[in-house]
Every structure is written in C-alpha cells, then in structure tokens.
From TrEMBL:
<protein>
    <submittedName>
        <fullName>Cation transporter</fullName>
    </submittedName>
</protein>
<keyword id="KW-0813">Transport</keyword>
<dbReference type="InterPro" id="IPR058627">
    <property type="entry name" value="MdtA-like_C"/>
</dbReference>
<dbReference type="GO" id="GO:0016020">
    <property type="term" value="C:membrane"/>
</dbReference>
<feature type="domain" description="Multidrug resistance protein MdtA-like C-terminal permuted SH3">
    <location>
        <begin position="303"/>
        <end position="361"/>
    </location>
</feature>
<dbReference type="InterPro" id="IPR051909">
    <property type="entry name" value="MFP_Cation_Efflux"/>
</dbReference>
<dbReference type="Pfam" id="PF25954">
    <property type="entry name" value="Beta-barrel_RND_2"/>
</dbReference>
<feature type="domain" description="CusB-like beta-barrel">
    <location>
        <begin position="222"/>
        <end position="299"/>
    </location>
</feature>
<keyword id="KW-0175">Coiled coil</keyword>
<dbReference type="Pfam" id="PF25967">
    <property type="entry name" value="RND-MFP_C"/>
</dbReference>
<feature type="coiled-coil region">
    <location>
        <begin position="112"/>
        <end position="139"/>
    </location>
</feature>
<dbReference type="InterPro" id="IPR006143">
    <property type="entry name" value="RND_pump_MFP"/>
</dbReference>
<dbReference type="GO" id="GO:0022857">
    <property type="term" value="F:transmembrane transporter activity"/>
</dbReference>
<comment type="similarity">
    <text>Belongs to the membrane fusion protein (MFP) (TC 8.A.1) family.</text>
</comment>
<dbReference type="InterPro" id="IPR058792">
    <property type="entry name" value="Beta-barrel_RND_2"/>
</dbReference>
C-alpha cells in the first residue's frame, strides 16, 4: 500500500513538472534582433497594440510670440539745442503737425553768437583770399608775377575755404546761413515731417550743451514692431504668408504687418533673434512702447502628424515603431517639429503609407 501511494505521488509530481514546462504563459511574447521586434503569434501583447497608417495632411504652421511697438528711427527725432543758452520762445504744442524746417523754439546763446561771428569772419577772409589769388594769377599771366607767390595764394585760398566750411557746418543744420542776421537768436527747427509727441519746452529755461532732449517729433503713420524669435523657430520665417498683430486693447481689430528685417545675430542669453515687422498705423492704434501679440502664418504645406504618445525616447533621441511585416516592428528614429492638439509633427524619418504603433508601444519598452 505504501509503495502504491509513493508511486502515485511520484507520477503527480512528474506530470506537474511536465505541464509547467509546456505552459504558453512561460513562452516568450516577442523576439528582439537588433532594432527589430517580432511578436509571437500567441503573444498577449498583440491585442493591446493600436496601429495607424501614416498620411500627409494640409497644415498651416503658426508661430505666436510677443513684440514691442517702436517708432521708425528715420521718422523719429529727439530735439535739443546745439548750443548752451536760454529758451526765449516756443512755437509748438503737443500733437501739432510740423514739416522739415518748421520752427520749434528759439534760444539766446552766447556760444551761438560767437559761432555766427566766426562764420562771418571766415566769409570775409575767404573773399580777401580769393581776390588775392585772382590778382596773383593775373600778374603771372601777364609776365609780371612770381610763381611762388601765386602758389602761396592758391594754398591760402584752400585753407580759408576749409575754415569757412568748418564754421558753417553746425549753423547750416539749423538755419540757412546765407540769410542769417547778426546776433539773432538761434531758432531750432524740426529736421523731419511729423507730429510733436513730447513737449518739455519751458520759457526762460537755461539749457546746457549736454541737456537731454526737450521735444520729440515722430511720424507714426508707420511703425515697427520688434519681436523675439527663438533660433529653433527661424524656419517659420522662410515662407511667411503674413504677420498678424493683436492688441489687447482692441481684440476685434485685425492688423497685418510684413517683415522688414531679421537680425543676423543670435542673442546668446535668450537664444533668440530680433525680427522687425513694419505696420501701417494711420489710426494711431499702435503706440511706441506698447506690447502686442504677433502671429506668424506660413503658407499651407503638406505635413505628417502622429499621436504624441506614439513617440518614444532612447538616449535623448525620438523614435517610433514601424510595422515591417505582420506582428513585426522596427525602431525608426525621427526628427520632430511642433506639438499641438496631442499630435506631433514628424519632419524626417517617416513616409506616407507606413504603419506605426500609436498606442501600446510601452509594452515593448524593455527592448533594446
């Protein structure tokens, strides 16, 4: 009896061991060869995988950033007095339209009076030098002159001519020196067409030579907007369809601009490039110093987008699992673009018509 029981127990143990060896649950679910993963046909992972065939679609890329409104430098003038002196009169008020040469204010300046005198003296000396040169040339022409004296007269004439040009340089910027009356106050004029946007002129105020500007004139019918674009996004600027400017104070107002200039230097701290956008501003909505939102819109293009969760990482590189045969997949490294609405753009690495795992790939993450 004891021998019968022992034989029965031994048979059960042997049967159990044989059953465990043949159990499907202990059969490997997949085989890995290099970057290829082959799933066994009885793998319980297969029904957990979601596949998708890649297609191209129309895509209109957009890039959104912020910008600051700026006056165009050639249409902006900071006005101060070129000479130290006291303000005698103001000819302007805020918002006034001015033209090039329009008087802004007058200044009584001892330095300006001295410059006037120096200019007139230089004029007189040039006239005398010119007469002497003509006389020496005439004498030489009739055979009674001396060559050396004629040459000295010519040299002196050139020196006096240069001195007059230097004396008139500063005066000509502000006034026609040919019509300048002796000891008259300096009238500072506008160098550009525009509008008075700052007026800090105070009657009787004494201005030093290094005084800050006391008036600003600007033409704001056009303005620049300075935006900062990250270097990785510079490709957005290649085929732009336009730049849309949005002002928070006027949410329903649509303003369009165009790129005027892209800076050639990348800011090393922010890794960005300044882009200047020129905008029409006839209604004066855009004011210098204002913050605005910029939307760069590219022309429509064909692009590949995949669910973001389909993209895996290995050693800081992105890859997807591409189907090469039934239940067989290969690791394919890809370059990605922008991510929006839970999808990511694939720039390089995939072609339309290929099939990838879009969900469930994490079951295979222990592969190498």
């Amino acid at each position: 009896m004891r021998a019968l029981l022992l034989l029965t127990a031994t048979s059960i143990i042997v049967y159990s061991c044989g059953d465990k060896k043949e159990s499907p649950e202990n059969t490997s679910s997949y085989v890995v060869k290099g970057d290829t993963i082959a799933l066994q046909k009885n793998s319980n992972i297969i029904p957990k995988l979601v596949l998708q065939t890649i297609k191209e679609e129309d895509y209109n890329p957009n890039l959104v950033t912020v910008g600051t409104v700026k006056a165009i430098p050639n249409s902006y003038a900071e006005i101060t007095s070129p000479f130290a002196g006291r303000i005698l009169k103001s000819y302007i008020k805020l918002g006034q339209k001015v033209m090039p040469g329009s008087p802004l204010f007058s200044v009584s300046s001892a330095d300006y009076f001295a410059a006037q005198k120096e200019y007139r003296d230089a004029q007189q000396e040039l006239r005398q030098s010119e007469l002497n040169l003509k006389r020496q040339q005439d004498l030489l022409k009739h055979g009674v002159g001396i060559q050396r004296e004629a040459e000295e007269a010519a040299t002196d004439f050139q020196i006096k001519k240069t001195a007059l040009a230097n004396a008139s340089a500063a005066l000509k910027i502000f006034k026609n020196t040919d019509k300048m009356s002796p000891n008259t106050p300096l009238v500072v004029v506008s160098p550009i067409k525009g509008e008075v946007i700052t007026n800090n002129i105070v009657m009787g105020q004494y201005l030093k030579e290094d005084a800050p500007p006391i008036a600003l004139v600007a033409e704001l019918s056009k303005v620049w907007i300075a935006g900062q674009i990250k270097e990785k996004d510079l490709r957005f600027l290649q085929n732009l369809n336009g730049v849309e400017v949005n002002v928070s104070a006027y949410p329903d107002k649509k303003i369009m601009g165009k790129i005027y200039h892209i800076n050639e230097i990348v800011n090393e701290e922010t890794r960005s490039v300044e882009v200047l956008i020129e905008c029409e501003n006839s209604d004066r909505i855009l004011k210098p110093g204002m913050f605005v939102n910029l939307k760069f819109s590219e022309t429509s293009e064909r692009a590949i987008f995949v669910p973001t969760k389909a993209i895996l990482q290995f050693n800081d590189r992105n890859y997807v699992l591409v189907q090469t045969a039934k239940n067989e997949y290969v690791k394919r490294y890809v370059d990605t673009g922008i991510t929006e609405n839970n999808t990511t753009q694939i720039i390089n690495g995939l072609k339309p018509g290929e099939t990838i795992i879009t969900d469930g790939a994490f079951y295979l993450l222990d592969t190498k």
